[in-house]
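Trying the structure run again after the queue cleared.
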Amino acid sequence: MSVIQTLSRVADQIVKVSNRALATVQSEEAPAATFEASKECEVANQQRALKKLGLGPASAAWQSSDVRFSGHTRPQGQPENWGELKQNLVTYLDGAQNRRACTRFANGSKGYALLDKSGEIMDATRAIENYRAPGSVTVSMHGVRPVLKNGEINPERNRTPFWDGTEPHGLRTTAEFVELLRPHLKAGDDAPIFLNVCNAGTESKGIVPAADVSRRTGRYVIAPVDSRVLGTGRGPQLNDKGGEWRVFHPDGTSELLYKPTAYPGWEKGH
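Done. Tokens:
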């Protein structure tokens, strides 16, 4: 069988799996506000298919046992109840973005790591402590901006993308960040990591801190992309217009979780 025929058969299987997943998501109750619902990520599935066939730049690091197109094996790091949990996370984020009352979820918080050491009681990183992401280990810390105020790329951001709020030695590499986080991750648990960290999912010169955290921990990581985060008592809001929340997978793929239709912080500042 030729490579083209093989790719064609794999593509057909991907479409079938994606359609079943989409039908499941659409049948679930969505938040009252209008928003872009999270769907099965066809791009991520296509990336996995190419890796399975030994094609593409990441194929050398691919573990073929992590994917079976029959659907009997979950992608690496995917929580067992991902379908339900993903919808709850969308509800959580949509409510926070639109400043609605807090929702009580059946799958509550799986832990909280406040890695901000500034000691400031009113710091925005502390605001969501009593209303954390459902079914996830919530982590609050500062993220280093990828672009400086003068519009130039921040040369230090990729080396030390995390900041604990202290001077002059509070900047942390991703490896150091993960070591600070590990005591908060229970062995054998598959709960995703929710990064309440500005721009943790934003790419700069090919580097995405959240993707690196996912690779190092083997877990799904939820992070803001192209936006700062405003922590509030009703959850984290994306502050910058065009920002979104994505889920980063240990295999190097990612999927859209939630993209707002309104950005209260940006609109207030403009």
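The chain has six helices and eleven strands. Worth checking whether this holds up in the mutant runs.
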